Amino acid sequence: MRIVSAEEMAALDTNCRYFGLLPLQLMENAGAALARVVMARAQGKRIAMTCA
């Protein structure tokens, strides 16, 4: 997985339709990726996630 800068993410958000994606899909993909990493690190422990 590659970490992108704020400027790169803004460009991706602006041009996501060119790649056949909606901005909502980018956010859903990012959330799913974060959830996978947290769950892998939690190793069966209970976790709670919040977004602001």
Radius of gyration over C-alpha positions, nearest whole angstrom: 14 Å
Task: Categorize the overall geometry.
Answer: elongated
Task: Return the structural class.
Answer: mainly alpha
Sheet bearing the most strands, described? none
Calculate the mean pLDDT score and round it: 87
Task: Return the string of H and E elements.
Answer: HH
Please count the helical segments.
2
Beta-strand fraction estimate: under 5%
What separation lies between the terminal Cα atoms?
23 Å
Please report the total strand number as a whole number: 0
Low-confidence stretches: none
Roughly what percent helix? 55-70%
Structural overview:
The protein is mainly alpha-helical. It has two helices and no strands. The chain has helices spanning 6-15, 23-42. The two termini are 23 Å apart. The relative contact order is 0.10. The model has no long low-confidence stretch (mean pLDDT 87).
Summarize the structure.
The protein is mainly α.
Layout of helices and strands, plus pairs?
Elements: H1 6-15, H2 23-42
